[in-house]
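We were asked to recover a plausible sequence for a given structure. The inputs and outputs are reproduced exactly as logged, with field labels preserved.

PROBLEM: sequence recovery
POSITIONS: 299
GIVEN STRUCTURE:
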């Protein structure tokens, strides 16, 4: 784990991504590491889980919806400075529709993650991200990194145009070129990082039908992008020594699923975390999970 600097946790809703990424971050801080835990889940719970501050751990909650809204507002503001009110109204409508466009929130998350991680790279030993990018997001990151030549051409043309403006004494510096160049540099760097050995993806699942299928999909998407996983976390495994008939029956079904997980995800290290008798809230409860995680990763 030592060399993995960026760790994404992913899986179906409710399997325990937020819990496990929090416990994992806590575990890293116990090893003396400085960690930034980033959540992109709109139903934010990091601040609920961490009832007290943990030294060497910072929390960051990104709200994709808000980020998209802010982009749109900013774009409209810029447009309204240079266009007639009628045009602005038309353009505004188009921009507003962007808010609902598929992928808008994913793009916003990529923008924010790339900005945060690259600008604070030296500050932290690890960046832990609650909620993994789907195959679609990863594809997007890869695509963006490949549009380098295209952006290059755009920048070249823009520069040519502005040198013409400059010659006619109309403009000195070009913000558009600056913005495009910054974006190209940042996203290319980010893609290199995501597709390097410094980044890893950790599927979280429960020994149940739907989470297993979701994990199959996630691994397939990662494989399609030539990305592997180092380990997966099987969360909410029933404790040993249950006696009651009802739980024994559940335990037998669970054993079948655990066998299935073993077979379908052969070659991937698996860390099991037991179901607790209460929801995992507060640093004290997280410490127990962190301990289980640590032992599982060792063994
Ligand atoms: N090992 C566990 N034992 C008991 N409750 C758990 C465990 N892991 C997670 N939970 C609880 O399950 C619920 C969903 O977990 P959460 O981490 O929010 O999932 P996700 O982020 O994947 O949606 C939360 O109420 C959490 O406290
Ligand atoms: Mg969550």
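RECOVERED SEQUENCE:
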């Amino acid at each position: 784990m030592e060399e993995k600097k960026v760790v994404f946790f992913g899986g179906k809703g409710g399997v325990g991504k937020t819990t496990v990424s929090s416990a994992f971050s806590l575990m890293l801080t116990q090893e003396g590491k400085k960690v930034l835990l980033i959540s992109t889940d709109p139903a934010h719970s990091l601040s609920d889980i961490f009832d007290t501050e943990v030294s060497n751990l910072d929390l960051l909650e990104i709200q994709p919806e808000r980020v998209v809204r802010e982009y749109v507002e900013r774009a409209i503001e810029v447009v309204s400075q240079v266009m007639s009110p009628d045009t602005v109204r038309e353009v505004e409508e188009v921009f507003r529709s962007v808010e609902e466009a598929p992928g808008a929130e994913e793009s916003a998350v990529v923008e924010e993650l790339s900005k945060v991680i690259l600008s604070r790279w030296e500050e932290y030993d690890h960046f832990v991200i609650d909620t993994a990018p789907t195959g679609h997001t990863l594809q997007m990151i890869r695509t963006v990194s490949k549009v380098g030549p295209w952006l290059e051409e755009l920048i070249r043309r823009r520069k040519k145009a502005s040198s013409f403006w400059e010659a006619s004494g109309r403009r000195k510096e070009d913000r558009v070129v600056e913005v495009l160049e910054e974006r190209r540099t940042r996203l290319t760097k980010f893609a290199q990082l995501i597709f390097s050995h410094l980044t890893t993806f950790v599927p979280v699942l429960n020994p149940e039908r739907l989470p297993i299928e979701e994990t199959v999909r996630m691994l397939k998407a990662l494989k399609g992008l030539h990305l592997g996983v180092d380990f997966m976390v099987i969360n909410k495994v029933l404790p040993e020594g249950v006696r009651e008939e009802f739980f024994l029956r559940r335990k037998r079904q669970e054993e079948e699923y655990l066998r299935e997980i073993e077979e379908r995800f052969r070659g991937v290290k698996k860390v099991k975390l037991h179901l607790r008798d209460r929801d995992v809230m507060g640093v004290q409860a997280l410490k127990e999970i962190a301990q289980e995680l640590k032992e599982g990763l060792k063994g």
